């Protein structure tokens, strides 16, 4: 009998570091990582090469839910033959609304939901300093994760851009929109007893607690020090 899949999502407002946390989870625990933002880039740009940065929320609930459902179903079917340590998955950037959460319920039953709670001022500073590589979605922060050469991607040398909704004047409205949409989603998962919330201003300080939580569910493939 195949081992039970561990299905988890990481929730958090824009700039909360959920992508970084998911990457570390995938690396430390041998998980598959599904990113709705990457799915959108591949879908709209033909394999990730798109002329403008694509963010979560650029499609309506029905279209984005359909896209994520298709990719998640393919992933779950594809891991049936893998060793037990690999038969797990995390998703970031989805769900952000109650409609998307209901769509996700039709795909699978979640075992774990991680919610990142970051102060508003920290998010505002992070987003305003964030630049991205459009083709891959790689994110840089000019304060704590700058590119090797200012204004260009480390791997391709192509120009970085700042998303319109990362500009200071747009950040406050973006965060308010997330808070309103995410509240019923968080309450839903809290009522199911699968929500685990972590608060802080630095991903590196939040990460050890996330690592400890996941270690109580599945054995890690890397120690915390190796990450």
From TrEMBL:
Where is each Adenylate kinase active site lid domain found? 130-165
Instruction: Name the domain of life this protein comes from.
Output: Eukaryota
A single Gene Ontology MF term assigned here is:
ATP binding
Leader sequence segment = none
What keywords does the record list, in alphabetical order?
Kinase, Nucleotide-binding, Transferase
Family annotation (Pfam families): ADK, ADK_lid
Family as reported in the entry's similarity comment: Belongs to the adenylate kinase family.
Q: What is this protein called?
A: KAD4 kinase
């Amino acid at each position: 009998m195949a081992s039970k899949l561990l299905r988890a999502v990481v929730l958090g407002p824009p700039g909360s570091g959920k992508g970084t946390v998911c990457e570390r989870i995938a690396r430390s625990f041998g998980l598959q990582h599904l990113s709705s933002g990457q799915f959108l880039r591949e879908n709209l740009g033909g394999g990730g090469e798109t002329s403008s940065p694509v963010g979560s929320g650029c499609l309506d609930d029905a279209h984005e839910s359909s896209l994520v459902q298709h990719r998640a179903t393919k992933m779950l079917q594809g891991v049936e033959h893998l060793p037990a340590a690999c038969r797990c998955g995390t998703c970031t950037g989805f769900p952000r609304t109650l409609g998307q959460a209901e769509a996700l319920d039709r795909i699978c039953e979640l075992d774990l939901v991680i919610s990142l709670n970051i102060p508003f001022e920290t998010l505002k500073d992070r987003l305003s300093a964030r630049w991205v590589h459009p083709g891959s979605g790689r994110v840089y922060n000019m304060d704590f994760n700058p590119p090797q050469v200012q204004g260009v991607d480390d791997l391709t040398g192509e120009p970085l851009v700042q998303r319109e909704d990362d500009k200071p004047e747009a950040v406050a409205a973006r965060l308010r929109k997330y808070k309103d949409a995410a509240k019923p989603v968080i309450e839903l998962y809290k009522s199911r007893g699968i929500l685990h919330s972590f608060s802080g201003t630095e991903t590196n300080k939040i990460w050890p607690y996330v690592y400890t939580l996941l270690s109580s569910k599945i054995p890690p493939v890397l120690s915390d020090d190796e990450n």
